[in-house]
Amino acid sequence: MWWRSASFILDRQQEQNTNLPPNPESLLLSSPPPSMADSLQNPKPDISAYYQTRAAHHAVVTSDWLAQAQAAVSVQTNDDVSSGSDGRVAPTCGGTGGDNKTFSVIDEFNSWRKQPDLAEAVAAIRALAAVIRASQATTMMELEIELKKASDSLKAWDATSISLTAGCDLFMRYVTRTSALEYEDFNSARYRLIERAEKFGEISYKARRIIAMLSQDFIFDGCTILVHGFSRVVLEVLKTAAQNKKHFRVFCTEGRPDRTGLRLSNELAKLDVPVKLLIDSAVAYTMDEVDMVLVGADGVVESGGIINMMGTYQIALVSHSMNKPVYVAAESYKFARLYPLDQKDMGPALRTIDFGVPIPSKVEVEKSARDYTPPQYLTLLFTDLGVLTPSVVSDELIQLYL
Amino acid sequence: MDPRRTARTVSGPKVRQVGFFTPAPPERSISDPPRFQDPIQPPSPSPTQVNDHSPSGNSLSPVMIPPAHHHSDNFLRTALQVTSPTKAFSYSAKTVTIPPENEDVASSFSPGRKVFSAKSPSSFPGVKASSVPASELTTVSVVNLPPGISEKAGGASVEVQNDRPVSAKTLKEKTSKAERRALQEAQRAAKAAAKAEGTKASSAASKVVTSANTKPSKAAKSSSQKNDGSQVAASEKKGGDRAPEKDRKKDAPHPRMQYDDKSRVEKAKKRAVVKQTEARNRVELFRHLPQYEHGTQLPDLETKFFELDPMHPAVYKVGLQYLSGDIRGGNARCIAMFQAFKEAIKDYSTPPEKTLIRDLAARISSYVSFLIECRPLSISMGNAIKFLKNRIAKLPLALSESEAKSTLMLDIDRFINEKIILSEKVIVKHAVTKIQDGDVLLTYGASSVVEMILLHAHELGKHFHVVVVDSRPKLEGQLLLRRLVRKGLSCTHTHVNAVSCIMQDVTRVFLGASSVLSNGTVYSRVGTACVAMVAHAFRVPVLVCCEAYKFHERVQLDSICFNELGNPDAISKVQGREEINYLDGLVNQENLQLLNLIYDATPSDYVSMIITDYGMIPPTSVPVIVREYRRDHLWS
Q1: Basic and acidic residues bias: where (chain B) (predicted)?
Q2: Domain range spanning residue A230?
Q3: Which of the residues B297, B456, B479, B579 has an alpha carbon 20 to 30 A from that of A24?
Q4: Across B272-290, average pLDDT
């Protein structure tokens, strides 16, 4: 059982990654052309791809360098697909058929990702489903290996994104774990896999709606909700509440440095919801008026805590000390088999911070984009599996993965 | 079974104080020493008087733990009742003092203790003997003797009472005619009461006993005191409670024997192979646990080696190793037990006219009870035994003997490999990811898994520092330290008293566990809770490493209900340090109780993570593992 667990897989993958550089073959393959993964991962070396994705999706001002980078990357991928990505990403894909050479799971993923409303994990799930569809494999084992490679390459594409990793893992678990597969011939089994993959994609896609419906019970007339960061689930929840003619007001934090709060307040103003913008440091000042805190999550970890945009932890601490409930809206594909013990116990997602004035080089800047909120500061999690207490997360994860 | 208490009951009127003396009874009753209460109550009503306290002690449910002061309270009340009517110090003047003889009595009849204990299985120790009051007259009072000796004498005097003829003999020499007559009457009354109690007790449930006990007390109402009635009522009520409880007990036998349940203990004793001598001063709060004198049974057992027919030598050997402490640690004990069982199964042949499944299961049960006598089972062993018994029960009937034996042996091997050895490796794999360069890791005691983790992390080339915290009396941490230092790890060794000083430098705490209970409570070597609590206070993450086969579905909130008591001598003496002898000669003192707990329970609040073979889980997820995997993997 254990060797299939995600944390174990993660560990092994990490080991492999650390072992990768000395391996001459992979060096040979990836180093001569600027390999696709490399170029994608660091157009700017100190910014993680995770953050770029977020910036592209959520930032009010989409910086043009990102657009340029995107363009450059897509050109490069087309160039590299035959040489770089196939060698590194999906060798079986490239090896099996000539027409398949052009198919790359990353391309597929990126094309899905361009849809603004589609979550990263759902994009990954759809890309993986496309892998099955495009696969030339003739045996189940081959297909499974292919799928595994594709999901590994997706995960390696952006190791800092928790929902991407979790989405890939969950897809693998959900799709390949059917006992029915063993008794059928390959083609029907493959068909069944595609069916399941599409179903899973559909479920993930609908998750946001389900969460919005479930959380309506918690939003009452006249309440004040403090929101941190821009989360599409949270927006959906608030939108649904507004549509249900609930009277509530929202406090939005500014969300420095990418000003995600500004964007959320714009969206809410369009819905005629009374909104107040706060600077990030005014959370404790306004907490008296707040009835509940509602945040999204980048990832929900096994302890039941969440990893979310920087600042969530301190908001949770403040609200905990003032006895205000903290609700988290998160889709179940964000459940990850991670278990950070403290803030520094996970790979940091870095970002640039614009202070408006030049910072002397001697001054160090904390660049981490997210923090970990332990479960004891969270009240409830709104997920598409239901409204859960933090401790149930581990229960669900154990049932999913073991 | 508590000499201390009996002694007190009796010693009250016996010891006279000459010289400075305050006659105010309430004061005396408040201040503890009852032995300074000299007045003697009229003998005839007193047996019942004393007796009517016995039900209240008697009907204490074995599961309930009496608060420590309960009995002494009770006793004080008794003393008060007894003294207040007379309030005369008539006897104080004509004290007959023969201290040396008294000592003799004490020494000569100390073996009588056993008889005494055996005679009164049902009654509660505190106030059990119905003949107690007589002793006031038999024993000679001691003038200004040091408390220790007088207590001893008191204890002895009770024993004397149980051996009637002897006591009568000693009596003749010392007592006047009137006193003898009074004593005879008392004895008669006591006998009658005892008879009533005995017959009723044997015939029916304890409720009847209670009523039987209350009857004579009513008869003796003339001297009984104001709170007597309330006590009777209380005892009756308790008696009433007890009957359904007994029924319930029959339905679901308790997983572990409660050692303050006399009748069960007696029954168990009859069956026992290992004759453990019980500790002299049993600790009040832990009466429900076996408290034995350590280190006495080994030679005796070794001589029995060839006499014991049903015990397999391998099992016998393992049992002796448990007893002497050669094998310790949850995994080691479990593996040793299974290896022994494997041997036993290998040599097993079904007796004629018996089926393998039943006979082997019974055989295993007898082995297990032998092992329990040597040392109480750990929870891991309990789980392993459940597994084995389940496998035996599920053997197909059609299987031939040799096939059945080989499947069982394979099962045992599989259990050892998969549940213990392999899962240790998996835990190591997981735990190593939580060790980073520059970490300072703290561990307490010697856990085999933690040792493997540290060594593996060292092999991977991680740079970290280890703090091994240790505690008396076992000092197991030094063993671990030795192995770590040999491998070249940089270590600090300290004792548990210094844990709060060293904790601020620590980044992770790794702990082993004897078991993890389903509310997330970690049941581990005593001191673990303390370390975890300090770590929690310093906001250092506490990682508990425990194989999933040690999980148990029980819920435990404290470390009192289930625990194991070690050798009390171990804490009173320091090995190799002869000059530390402050407790010499005090160990057998009645008012000194030495408590050497083996385990404690760490609340789940202090545990950040449990690393198990199913991955890293929060303590709240233990019941999930128990629910999801016990059934599939362990039980079938």
Answers
A1: 170-183, 235-266
A2: 209-353+364-399
A3: B456
A4: 68
Does residue A223 sit in the same domain as residue A337?
yes
Q: How far apart are the first and last CA of chain B?
A: 43
Q: What is the pLDDT of residues A234-274, one digit of tens each?
A: 999 999 999 999 999 999 999 888 888 999 999 999 999 99
Section B326-334 average pLDDT: 87
Among the listed residues B348, B273, B6, the one whose alpha carbon sits nearest the alpha carbon of residue B155: B6
Question: Is residue A77 included in any domain, yes or no?
Answer: no
Chain A residues with beta carbon closer than 8 angstroms to that of B551: none
Identify the band that residue B125 occupies on the pLDDT scale cut at 50, 70 and 90. Answer: very low
Closest CA to B532 of B628, B635, B473, B619: B619
User: β-strand B515-517 against B551-552: which pairing, if any?
Assistant: parallel
The secondary structure element, H or E, covering residue B83 is helix B70-86
Cβ contact, residue pair B615, A401, below 8 Å: yes
Give the residue from A205, A236, A256 where a domain finishes.
A205
Q: Which helix (H) or strand (E) holds B464?
A: strand B464-470
**Which of helix, strand or coil describes residue B49?**
helix
Looking at residue B307, its pLDDT comes to 61
CB contact under 8 A, A302 and B541: no
Q: Are residues B355 and B450 part of one domain?
A: no
DSSP A186-237: HHHHHHHHHHHHHHHHHHHHHHHHHHHHHGGGG--TTEEEEEES--HHHHHH
**Interchain proximity A398–B614, CB inside 8 Å:** yes
Range of the domain at B490: 434-574+586-634
Distance, in Å, from the CA atom of B506 to the CA atom of B596, rounded to the nearest integer, reads 29
Taking an 8 Å cut-off on Cβ atoms, the answer to whether B615 and A402 are in contact is: yes
B620, B626, B631, best to mutate vs chain A, most A CBs in 10 Å? B620
| Positive or negative: CA dihedral B288, B294, B297, B298 | positive
* Residue A272 shares a structural domain with residue A344: yes
pTM for this predicted structure? 0.65
Number of domains in chain A: 2
Q: Which of B419, B452, B485 is the last residue of a domain?
A: B419
CB contact under 8 A, A341 and B434: yes
CATH number at residue B347: 1.20.120.420
Q: How confident is the model over B193-211, as pLDDT tens digits?
A: 665 555 444 444 444 444 4
